[in-house]
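Human: Note token order:
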Amino acid sequence: MKKMRFTGSMVVIAAMMLSISCTSPISLTSWKNPDDHSKISKVVIIPLFAKLEYVKPFEQSMGSYFASQGLKSIGSLEFLNPTKSYTVAALQHKIDSLGADGVLLFEYKGTDKDANYIPATYYGGFGTAWGYGGGFYGGGVYSGGYWMTTSTVNVKALLYNVKNTTGAIWTADISVTDPQYIDESATQVAQKIYADWASNGLLNTIATK
């Protein structure tokens, strides 16, 4: 009986497919106010998304990751009624009562779509073994060309000091390519943000431990 032996290229291709299916590529380009030396120990997360069903899983997943790193946080739906309007003064009073020192806003900036043509490919199979040769099941594997559409969701993140609402102390342009689930994407975004805050010295490491 002919036995199959996977080539190195086939193993690499399989690994790439698995990695792509599990994560969405995320880019983050940030700016920090060089004149502000605020340290964040508890942050309020406020996604300004049009669809309410996106807000809750986004807040919860981001908050869960922050908590795993020792950073306290609270989502907007935990203390705000999404059907009501609030003045800036009323909103600031509510945030002050939570003991938070930072407010993290998210603004949806639109979705970009790109179409790319993937050319046809052909690769062989198990090679020569025990006197047999040829391709996979006696023939090579052929993949016809096709068009692939990529969607990139763009979000703006802004971090404010609760005591100073005149300007953001940190901002970031975030792009998520082909997001599948809002909770998974939120966790990945939280990882990027936390790492960036840590590198920029924005975390009150004593308070968050």
The beta strands are 26-32, 42-48, 72-75, 102-118, 121-123, 141-143, 146-161, 170-177. Confidence is low (pLDDT under 50) at residues 1-22, 124-140. The chain is about 30% helix and 30% strand.
